[in-house]
Amino acid sequence: MASPKSRPRDGYPGRAMGLILAVAVALVAIMFATGNTTPRLGVDLAGGTTVTLKAVAPKSNPGAVNSTSMNEAVSILQQRVNGMGVSEATVQTEGSDTIVVTIPKGNNTNQIAQEVGTTAKLYFRPVLAEAASGVAVSPSASASASAGASKAAGASASASTQAKGAAAGSASATASPSASKTQGDAVTGDLTKATASAGASATHAAGSAATGTAAAAATPSASASANSTYGTVPADLAAAFAKLDCSQAAQRVDYQTAENANAVACSSDASLGYYVKYALGPVSVPGTDISSASAGISQQNGGWQVNLNFNSAGAGKFTATTKALSGKTSPQNQFAIVLDGKVQSAPSVSSAITGGQAQITGSFTQQQATSLSNVLSYGALPLTFTQQDVTTVSPELGSSQLTAGLVAGALGLALVILYSMVYYRGLGLVAIAGLAVSAVLTYSIMCLLGATIGFALNLPAVCGAIVAIGITADSFVVYFERIRDELRHGSSLRPSVQRAWPKARRTILVADFVSFLAAAVLYFFTVGKVQGFAFTLGLTTLLDVVVIFLFTKPLITLLARRKFFSEGHPMSGLDPKRLGVRPPLRGGRRPVETKEA
Predict the structure, then answer these.
(1) Measured between alpha carbons, how far is 541 from 468 in angstroms, rounded to an integer?
(2) Omega before residue 591 within 30° of 0, cis
(3) Distance (Å, rounded) from C-alpha 245 to C-alpha 227?
């Protein structure tokens, strides 16, 4: 019976090479399949947008604009920009009262610039009255037309609520067609969404129960008059509310007064063809009492939701607010989330919410849920800012810099290849192949990271990639020289390759660890463009380890089995005459070493 084939002393190098080549092919395939064939470029290379914000001190506290409050504002704005999925953006102070936000060029640069400029404080205010403003729907619209408007709002005529940590309760409610998507959220322990229904506005007009429905058609304007119940609205606020016309851009300004006073506000958009105006009570919960907010998937309906968490002070205020609102009828069971004087959302409440946690669910898209969560998380700045300037940065200078960087990288790579071929000859081809594999892995990963995590390639990052050429070449040199040292001691090639590897591996790992540690320190203790250099340096250092272990070492092991290299051909780079080895190159005995006296 034949014995099973024994494992070669030098292992199965083909398997390791097959693995790394398969990974490289897979990354390239994903890159082309997703269309992300070029890296995302930073502001200094591709241009972008610069937003200049100026801090305004309130009259009651002229000293509010100071280094402490400015640094806090920079930190919040940095988080806010990152929360929008932007990488390589910079937020920095300029002078004593100005902040400059630089955003790389992208598909949503204008939207981000607009949201970053929305820098007023965030408030939760109870809704006293609401009405359509700037109606674009014909007053004589039929029931079917009104239903169409309801459909445009993504309407669902009911809302359910459930308080966390308390007995479950539910209620059904209808909302007037004056409710746009900013008013279409309902708050409970699992904040559920109650959206507009044109026919349901007649319910409010008739004063029917919250669970009632109306078959009659009603126009938004009719709903506005029926829904604007002035019974609990002070006369001065009622006059300001009646006068407000949100369809006029000049009137869509910040009417927010002191936190303990009433105010009016417009909805943040008119996506249904009209705005919604609100009469609001004093601030019940300031935005600074929100500890965190995030967008996620609802476990109830699988739709997008916004998760809210309040700090200890905010939890008590939120519980008291929802308890007071839950016993009222629409719209006075709502509270408005007001940022920069505009209502971002006006959820309704049907039961008290305890525990400091809640969810807003409904017909949100991912973008809408993320945008609202960003407002809730990062909208509460310690100062009021005015947007002074929005400037588009030209990519022309960056293009010339990129060209210069690529030329420098190409020149460096050419010199490394030339040196490898002259000094190492046949082994130089191994170095070139290793550099090619490393380049394919680095480029494809950068392209995919730009699409997935927003990694932007700036000029320092290009420098990091150029430095990586030297790091990768250095690993080849260490291994090649260890092999040649073994050959100089009289070993044949295959044993030399195996004996040289442990020594070379230790040196390569130590050198790469030092480079990676330096990159990590730079990344975590610096900001802005230096992080791009650190990220690229760290990435390429890790890839160097992968390439040397899974490609270079296996390839040399395979080549050592070939006669061209094993017999020390003059063009192999292992010529015994060039290495100072007495022929024959192969032999079982090592030369006798003499010790110095």
Answers:
(1) 7
(2) no
(3) 16
Per-residue pLDDT tens over the stretch 253-273: 878 778 889 999 998 887 767
Where does the pLDDT of residue 403 fall: very low under 50, low under 70, confident under 90, or very high at 90 and above?
Answer: confident
Two tokens, residue 366: 């991912």
CA distance 391 to 458: 19
Written as one string, the DSSP assignment of 206-269 is: HT--TT----S---HHHHHHHH---TTS-HHHHHHHHH--TTSGGG-S-----TTS-EEEEES-
Give the span between the Cα atoms of 22 and 68, in whole angstroms.
53
| Phi-psi group of 71: left, alpha or beta (phi > 0 → left; psi -120 to 50 → alpha; rest → beta) | alpha
pLDDT digits (tens, 9 = 90+) for 82-108: 666 665 677 888 888 888 888 777 656
Domain annotation for the chain: domains and CATH numbers: 13-41+395-579 (1.20.1640.10), 48-111 (3.30.70.3400), 120-380 (no CATH)
Lateral strand order in the sheet of 98-104: 90-94, 98-104, 48-56, 384-393
Task: Identify the CA nearest to 124 among candidates 267, 281, 293, 241.
Answer: 281
pTM of the predicted model over 0.70: no
Q: Which residues pair with 390 in a beta bridge?
A: 51
Q: Average of pLDDT values for 220-245?
A: 64
Q: What is the pLDDT of residue 219?
A: 32
| CA 348/CA 399 separation, integer angstroms | 52
Distance of CA 539 to the CA centre of its chain: 19
Which residue matches tokens 């126009």? 219
Tokens of 409: 């990288």
Cα separation, 460 vs 528, in Å, equals 10
């190098």: which residue's tokens? 13
Tell me the pLDDT tens digit for each residue of 314-323: 889 998 988 8
Q: Give the pLDDT of residue 117.
A: 58
Q: What is the pLDDT of residues 325-375, one digit of tens each?
A: 888 888 888 888 887 678 888 888 878 888 888 887 767 788 778 777 777
Q: What is the four-CA torsion angle of 458, 461, 466, 472, rounded to 10 degrees? A: -150
In the chain, the amino acid numbered 358 is: A
Peptide bond into 584 cis (omega under 30): yes
